[in-house]
Write a structure and sequence with these properties.
five-stranded antiparallel sheet; Chorismate synthase, AroC fold; alpha+beta; 18 strands; homotetramer; globular
Chain lengths: 363, 363, 363, 363
């Protein structure tokens, strides 16, 4: 268990990095949603590696196929199974992982849980490749949410020590898609690309931060005290490999703030209650408050690096110097952005349906 | 829905801040666990407000009663219902909240979801008081985990801009309980107390950070790809009012690190695989790796402050200057620490039982 | 786990037969439902033993208390905790059960699962007394459903070999409550009472069948292929101790029918599609079809009988002649009827909320 | 939602009768289970239509493909996605269903829930064809349970008014597979076949009853009070189209029995507690008691019949005489037997894993 997410819009993940395919079953999409294969494909394409941004050399075509649940371009209410066949898998480099766990990887913990039966090829279930399925599910969720006017946009906020400082108005899909690092600040974007290229030359990798915004979210979404809006979102974000931290609104900086600084004051704008600031990041008491939802997800540097690292052979107990071969992203942050977006969509969609906003979404 | 947490060790919360009681039902505790009422009471007592640390003036006796599931000091396998009756509730100050939402509070979002039927008295379901029930559940979970040698300890790492820097060996329950702010660094603790007292005089409040450690956790706990160990932990932490961010291990600082710095190298110690550093915070691939689990939770400053703040009357649309009356903590961080501890226990217990470690826990 | 039912209207049961109380937490009731304590009490009172119908001699007062979730006679959207304190418990007769399991009882299986830690007093969690909590939950669900015009009525269809044959128009709560066996056919009722009294004199017990109808149920309720309307209903019915079989519409007699006999033909009545017969029992393809839902639940005779029965001492392996003491119902069927009604209400309410009919139910 | 079953061994169904495929994702199979594609195929083949038993004329090849979760003939612990591509689908006969619902079918209720977007082709999600996926999941579950010695066998007990009376020792897979109706009583089998053929000639259909036995089930499986062993089993059985009733052990006949007749007396056999009779059908208090689990599932006659039936055009409101075209089974009971078997396996497997019997099942 553990491979299904959601209660009302249920996403079940399957597939392995170097298996036959990666895919997903989406259960709970109301009947009547118009959704084209091209729309799903377009979302998945945004997750493609960009060689200029240190992306893997793998040719990941990721042609999405819909196996069920969509008929004549419209959802039928039945579970939607989607997948992409794996074509370009080279598993030759994964032979010795069983006994020699790679530092920073899930090899060792996978061994603890699944033993030698783990599918280690290409990271198996622990590979970022699994998130292609998440993005397929996210494409359905986005389309549903769009009917209520909800928009979601993720952008790269930081790579290494390069921090973007985009003008809020510049945080658009169009701008984000203009560069290889999904950054809404073009100056920072260039610096990030240079940093990633330099790190790549060192056979090393680098971390970063993705910020995600959700606009026009109806107020009152969330199911406290345990199924809070933040709680379900962070859980979904932590399904993305390499996520190490998540914060909302003022986040960790709130720790050093006073109540009189942090409290968002209320005001009326166009006969609607708004807050003058958004330290809450759009969520209060575990419920959306109608302001933009703002979350940040910190990603660690990719574990796979060419540099030699010390590890141990589990069987013999002997020290080993390991240099990870194979083709890897030296910075996964730009590719993680569309996945963060997808998870936001999936969770919001689940809460919208739990709140009975179905009817409003679909005629 | 939304008031139950867990799949195998299921915690259901009920009660309101100024209702008859706050309580919890724990379903899934195996039969045969020896658990005394005094042990549960002792955990709940650790959550009591400390007046020297800016705690509320309320006299919260919180006498725990066990209504079911424990017979002759031993769990029977039946659901354990526990509660504390509310005795000292003064709801007089909560009359006008319906129309005049307090800045930083959940009043407005509660209104969006539950309308005027919301129990606003004392914050109702959104009050930190609800967490007394979480701690009762945590007491059961701690006892179960203790049978496997698992230890959990939370401590205040930061209050406002005061950061603790405790020696790892000093992070013990005994030390943490020695001061009113649950801080393992006595020098920082004194500064924190002074800061809180100064903030309190200003009728203001202050935020902070709690760190939690779990030691001797068996490897392989977690159910990726969605029910990751981190994912379920963060979800549980976000059930604590005022939580704004969570990170594991190196957390947000990982964003600026290289793979060669961040990857924890493997080594053998006492014939056991360990890592030389713990940037992963004890979790890799969503699974525990046997090293200490390290998480940090950022809390915003308490929303309730005596200082005058601008808000709006929802009905009339007119501006209102609001000064929140009633008795409130000016820093909830020290009281949040035992709750963070409880949530860690509850989630680890759920995963241990999911992994079939039941048998090992209880004969 | 296993003590919670439902996904959107979640009922969590707690308490033991001879513990401090029996109770329930209902999570998911929308805010704004007017519900009086007297209404809940009235439902629970219908479950009281009737001495003329072989009811237990126990004086079960079952005064319901609401601990949370209802304020000023209206639901707040918070979990509703309700319970009845146990007053008249005599556990003296349950001393030796641990080693000498009673035939037909759950003593032995409880021992297999929970060992000697089981709360055997009065049957503990396996007692019919637990269903008092189900009825409390059912009272909330009934009230919610009533807002949509849904009516539910259960009646005793059979006791031993006495079969009722009520005129459909006579199946009303009023008629059912007119006799001690909850039978809508007064002639059969008298025979049933005589049979029960005769069985009681023999220190024996007798089984029976309860039929339940749900009227005005909106069409399309259910979530196939697994969460079918029938599937969730039967699961709920089997939570009632002594249930051995469930059927819908033509049920087991459908096995001997041809399609041309069984298929319900469609027709228009008042511009609404109806079926001319109701062999389907109101459910087709796991979904309600707008016709009355008709289900029958078969109950075995009460296991507790005064007659001497052969069993075995688990510890010594020796044969024992056991005559169960204590006060027991010689026919639980009449008392099961209100519980069957409650379970129908709980499940329909869950599906109505899953279908987003919340909005229609509550302002 | 509603297309996933189980908590620990989670089966997610997808696919449509005339879509691209029917399939299933099994999440929760422990790593290390040896399972050959041929073993899964063999189970699915048992569900094939037998023309001599009134089976559909469709050539259903149902070649199973495993897309994930099994590597080198062994489960890896990852979700197992399996499917069969649909090859021989003729949807031409399903054009007018949208407006003219077929009596006895789910067309109308599907329309109520999913509107005109329903995939009506071949019954879509409501087709018995979906159960091919259930059988794939059952094949995994059977293999897991076999490691604990659990055996499951379903057989046709009744077709129309022909009742089988097999000698208990004759209820074996071998015997059951010997005839086209999966009946363990060869004399009754011949009569059943003749009855089905006669019904088929009349362009009609006939119902029946399947009995299923589970042997060597460990005691104590089940999670009362709501997740009873019976409750989860019946829910699973009702996912099979055409199921109308389920009973355990003495079932509906228990209604007419006295406690002194029904109670199963305990005895010791080979130092193990057994019951002298098995009226309980192996389940007491919602928990397995170690005796054979015995359940019976009643199936209504197939709704699709060639005979002319009255129905209504929803749009025009006019009466229509409908004769269902296409190729259909005139008795689905023999094909339902392997599905009932599969559902029993799936549910028992879920409970075994919930009880932590994982370790015992898989090294």
């Amino acid at each position: 268990m553990g491979n299904s997410l959601g209660t009302r819009f249920v996403v079940t993940s399957f597939g392995e990095s170097h298996g036959r395919c990666v895919g997903v079953v989406v259960d709970g999409c109301p009947a009547g949603l118009p959704i084209g294969l091209d729309e799903i494909q377009a979302e998945v394409d945004r997750r493609k590696p960009q060689s200029s941004a240190g992306g893997t050399g793998r040719r990941e075509e990721d042609r999405v196929e819909v196996l069920s649940g969509i008929l004549n371009g419209t959802s039928t209410g039945a579970p939607i199974c989607m997948l992409a066949w794996n074509k370009d898998a080279d598993s030759s480099a994964y032979g010795e992982i069983v006994n020699v766990p790679r530092p920073g990887h899930a090899d060792y913990t996978a061994f603890l849980k699944y033993g030698k039966y783990t599918d280690f090829r290409g990271g198996g279930r622990f590979s970022g490749r699994i998130t292609a399925g998440f993005v397929m599910a996210g494409a359905i969720a986005r389309k549903l949410l769009a009917l209520s006017g909800v928009e979601i946009i993720a952008h790269t906020l930081q790579v290494g020590d390069i921090k973007a400082n985009p003008h809020p108005a510049d945080i658009t899909r169009k701008n984000v898609d203009r560069n290889a690092v999904k950054c809404a600040d073009p100056v920072a974007a260039r610096k990030m690309i240079r940093l990633i290229q330099s790190v790549q030359k060192e056979a090393d990798s680098i971390g970063g931060i993705v910020e995600v915004l959700a606009l026009n979210v109806p107020g009152g979404l969330g199911e406290p005290v345990f199924d809070t809006l933040e709680g379900e979102l962070v859980k979904a974000f932590f399904a993305i490999p390499a996520a190490r931290g998540v914060e909302f609104g003022s986040g960790f900086t709130a720790a050093a703030m006073k109540g009189s600084q942090h409290n968002d004051l209320f005001s009326m704008r166009d006969k609607k209650l708004v807050t003058l600031t958004n330290h809450a990041g759009g969520v209060s008491g575990g419920l959306s408050n109608g302001m933009p939802i703002v979350a940040r997800v910190a990603f660690k540097p990719t574990a796979s690096i060419g540099k030699s690292q010390k590890t141990v052979n589990i069987e013999t107990g002997k020290r080993v110097d390991l240099s990870v071969k194979g083709r890897h992203d030296s910075c996964i942050v730009p590719r993680a952005a569309p996945v963060v977006e997808a998870m936001m969509a999936v969770v919001l969609c689940d809460f919208a349906l739990r709140a009975g906003i179905t009817g409003r979404i679909i005629k």
